[in-house]
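User: quick one, fold this
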Amino acid sequence: MRVYFDTSALVPLYVPEALTSIAVERLSGAEAAYVSWLTEVEVTSALAQKTRTKELGKDDARRVLEAFRAHLRDKAYEVLPLTREAFALASTALGRFDTPLRSLDALHLACCQLFDLTLLTADAGLARGAKLLRVPHEHLALP
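Assistant:
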């Protein structure tokens, strides 16, 4: 399966948390793993949040961020561009006015739609939006 990791499914690959084993299992079972350039910004934001809440020290956050960036450089993930078409799809999804999507989540879904990928997410709102838009997805959650 060709899977797109949104940030909520990607961070557990780098920072141990409850969903880590599930995320690792999905990555190891994937035919190919995709992210977008948006993901780098969101991973950095998630790590910053974890340092503000004292879940992670700044030095550890820097090491995690460098490991993620090394994986991007080494092509552990296929990085998708955010094209004008992706922004148009995201805008159309948000313009339905019936989804729980936020703007960046809509961009993640647009990437999945454009490249025919299955979304992996731990975000319940994004999973609901994917269901409404009929985007193949898996909501990673604890049993």
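User: anything notable?
Assistant: DSSP finds seven helices and five strands in the chain.
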